[in-house]
Amino acid sequence: MASILKVNTIQDATNSNTAMTIDSSGRVTMPSQVLFQGVSETLASSKFTTYIADATGDSYTLNLTSIGGVLNIGGHFNVTTGIFTAPIDGIYEFHAGFQSRNNNTSRKIGALFVNGSNIGELFESASAYADGGRSFFADLNANDTVQLGDAGDDAFSVCSFSGRLIQ
Question: Domains (ranges, CATH) in the chain?
């Protein structure tokens, strides 16, 4: 015998907050799903900090203002430090973009820091005005941190960083 669960809202057991809704067409929304994005042109100790919607208002940087600005659903991304803290164990998807606004052909490396340690490079270039990006997945434990930075001879000028919980 088949069973059909007919609900359009699922709430958490503790506070009765809406965790998920399903509309009449079957579209699912999760208002508290972990999601963030921002742009930075501030480097401190080789790590990007101070994420905003548009680094300088110029045409060289992805302008997030035109698509809704900085997102930080759940508040797990610290826009001042550039550190994302995983709220729960899970698989997370991240995207990083790096830009160089000068004619410097020194080696530039976009680096990934997990729990404060540089675990490897995401993008490398020795080209003038270099732009590049990468997506990556991470199996994180609750309270693990992720941050982007630079580990090359010359720094990238701008970084865009976004991520979300996927599983």
Answer: 33-165 (2.60.120.40)
Contacts of 62-71 with C-beta under 8 Å, sequence gap 24+, read: 62/97, 62/160, 64/37, 64/38, 64/39, 70/36, 70/37, 70/38, 71/35, 71/36, 71/37, 71/38, 71/162
Please list the rounded mean pLDDT of every run of 10 residues in the chain (167 residues): 74 83 84 87 91 71 69 93 97 93 87 93 88 93 96 85 94
Contact 64, 74 (CB under 8 A): no
Partner residues linked to 118 by β-bridges = 113
Which 8-state DSSP code applies to residue 77? E
Three-class DSSP category at 24: coil
Closest to 95 (Cα-Cα) out of 51, 135, 54, 124: 135
Strands 90-99 and 158-165: antiparallel
Q: What is the pTM of this model?
A: 0.85
Q: Are strands 145-150 and 83-85 parallel, antiparallel or unpaired?
A: antiparallel
